[in-house]
Amino acid sequence: MPPRTGSRSAPSTRSTDSERTSASSSTRPSIHYDAPPVFRKTPDVPALNLLISLLISGTTSASPKPAFLPPSQQLALAATLAVHPSLTTRAQSEDRLQASILALKYLRLVLSLVGPLNGNLRDAFAFSTVETSSRRGAARRRTTGDDASLTKDDLDSINTELANAGSVWAKAQDFWHVVGWAFNCSVLHKRRWERWHLWLEYMIDVLDKDWALRAHLHIENEYSDDDPREGSIIVQYLSAGDTIARQERRILRAVFADGSPRSTAEFPEIWRNETKERKKEADIKKTESKLDIEADKW
User: Which residue has the higher pLDDT, 237 or 37?
Assistant: First the structure.
């Protein structure tokens, strides 16, 4: 669906996060939030390539144009695609494996070219709770006139399990559940750790840059009553769940997860049968040979 035009004001734009720390902000690209919803059912390589093209086409030219970003649902889905076993350790085709690689590449480009603030990564990377169950439909688009009857969910919803109940944001209890499970994998499941450590590396970069930018804004607006650091992603992750004291102890246990029975009980796998390996080619052919619908063999 192309960007909507007509009975509404001109598309809103904002400077990138890098502009907040640069005096030459006029040379930086700005942001446009009406990217086409390229994910509707099954995410694929062409869809991810389109997202990458839309992003870099607006940020690398001599005269920077608005950088097209999708709704937060698509960013959240990309984060799931980057680590889900069906596209990584159990990928049944090169295309599915390539999709996970492109998803992580896209997320890194969003972080480096747009930044966590204008990329709205705080909303995209929020784990599902009672408060955040509807945040996938956050108001990234503003409609007026004839478009006013369209709900946010109608515009931005993605009809795939991995974008909803099957996403990492819905399957994991919180960020520290992921951290604990990832470190359990580093001991028990090396192939899963290969994927999780790339995902964690990216998320740490997100947390670090988000905090640094908000700290800079706090210094710039030292006389303001509002502290932008309170809205940071890391604060969101730290304040989720139990009391502060219990949460701090749980965080320490996640960071030092060692694959022990106690650790795996507290920080179990994110997806069911996540560590199950992809069948060998011989096993796949053997299974296929047993399936013959016409001969009633299935």
Answer: 237
Residue 199 contacts residue 89 (beta carbons within 8 Å) = no
Helices 45-57, 94-109: inter-axial angle, 10-degree rounding: 20
| CA distances from residue 172 to 53, 128, 182, 208, 283 in whole angstroms, order as listed | 31, 8, 12, 21, 31
Residue 285 Cα distances to 96, 280, 289, 298, angstroms: 19, 9, 6, 14
Half-sphere exposure of 285 (CA within 13 A, CB side): 3
Alpha-carbon gap, residue 257 to 266, rounded angstroms: 9
Q: For a pLDDT cut of 90, what percent of the chain falls above it?
A: 45
Helix axis angle, 244-255 to 175-188, nearest 10°:
20
pLDDT per position as a tens digit, 107-139: 999 999 889 998 899 999 999 863 444 444 443
